[in-house]
Structure formats: C-alpha cells, structure tokens
Amino acid sequence: MTTPLVFSRYGITLKELEQDDIELVRQWRNDPKIAELMLDRSHITPEQQQAWFEQVSQASDQYYFLALFKDQAIGVASLTKIDRQAGHCEPGMYIYNDQYRNNIVPFCLAFALNDLAFETFGLTRLLGKIYTDNKASLEFHQACGYRFQRRAEHEALEYYSLNWPDYLAARAAITRFIRY
Amino acid sequence: MKTLAQVFAEGLAIELAEVNEALIYQGIPQWNSVAHMRLIALMEETYNILLDTDDIIAMSSFAKARSILEKYGVSGL
C-alpha cells in the first residue's frame, strides 16, 4: 500500500482517506445535515461504502481526504474528475462539526484543498456545481473567487469556474485573518 | 462609534431589530461563513483591533462577541 498523501495549510491537515476512516465518514455522510448538501442524497450502507472506497483507492482521477483541524477530524474534502491534460478538477468538501461550519474554518479547508489542486497537482482551473437554491454555497464559492459559467439545462444547477489569478485575489482577502 | 448591535446588523446583513442577546451562530440562516468574515472585518475596522484566529472561531454569539471584545479593551458596547 502506498503512503497516504498528507497536505497541511492554514491550520488544516488533509490526510488521504484510509480504511480506518471510512465508517466515520459514512456516518457523517448519512447524517441528514450532510446528506442534504449532496447531489446524491441516498443512504449509504457499509457495503456500499466499502465498495466505493475500494474503487476510489484504485482511481487516479479522484482523491478523498479526511480534514483535520487542531488534530481533530472535522470533515471530508475531495478532488474529483481530475483531468490532468485539460488541467481541471472538481473540489468538494463538507465540515461535520457544527462549531466549525460557518466561520473562518470552511475557508481554511477550501484554501488548503485549492492550494493542493493548483500547486501540487498543477491544475489551472477548478470547477464547481451548485444547486440554484443553495444560497450559502453560492456566496461561499463567490467569496473564493469562482465565476458563473452556465446554468444546467434540465436541473436546478449552476456551473462555476475558478482560475489561479481570481483565486489568489479571493484567498488574500480572507487569509489575512488567519493568525496562528 | 458604531454599537456592537449596529456592527452585527451590518456584518450579517440583518435588521438591527433582529440583533439581541440571544443571537447565536447558526441561529439564523444569514450567519454563514461569508457573513461571519464580513462581520469580523467590520469589527476589526470599527474598533481598530486585530482578532486572534481562535477568537474569530470562538465568536459564536452576540454575547460571546461582546466578551471577546472586552479582552481587546473594547467595552461599553
């Protein structure tokens, strides 16, 4: 087995998901407060979770991470649909712990993940899909520098994109408050 | 100088009448991460302080904000 990828910035550590993490992540993912944020909101069984983890472990176009803050597991982050030739991927994240869900910590997590995508993976563009009624997610993406691209034809979804210069400007506006 | 209630109303983009001692983080949909950081920026600018990141995270209610500000010498709000 290869050594799991670990990346730390802004007080957040992203640790590539391992077998011992997947039951905790399944329980988080099945909690309605997290499930309602997902594009696929169905209940996940232990067997489905195991099959998913085995598939992810073999894939080279997707990475899932346990997010830790002050050595405490607080959520999950991912880079999926990684297209190294086209230079883009889709980041995703959620924070389970209520005390960290609506302050500066989501930005710390998003920026750690984005830095990993841009700097370590060498990608040039990050892509986001947002339900049109998810105002909080829309505001968060915009605060991270994402720009509207288009609306889906048959779903209440909007597509957003983030490039490096826009990201740097947005990141600087928030990281000035990170004073560890 | 703006009162803390005025700063909260402006930062969270809510009516001044909605700001009270019982106002808590996640108690209203407007208090999301973007609004939280807008509130922090406004607080630092208004009271000319630099908040520690741990205090930014700990600012989980209107009452808690007042007690944190007192640590920075801002009182009587």
Explain what this protein looks like in three dimensions:
The complex is a heterodimer of chains A (180) and B (77). Chain A is built from six helices and eight strands, in the order ββαααβββαβαββα. Chain A has 180 residues and is α+β, with helices and mostly antiparallel strands. Chain A has an eight-stranded mixed sheet. The longest helix of chain A has 16 residues, at 105-120. Chain A starts with 5 loop residues before the first strand and ends in a 5-residue tail after the last helix. The model of chain A has no long low-confidence stretch (mean pLDDT 95). Chain B contains four helices and no strands. The relative contact order of chain B is 0.19. The model of chain B has no long low-confidence stretch (mean pLDDT 94). The A-B interface holds A 11, 98-107, 136, 139-140, 143, 174, 177-180 and B 25-26, 29, 31-34, 36-37, 40-41, 50-53, 56-57, 59-60.
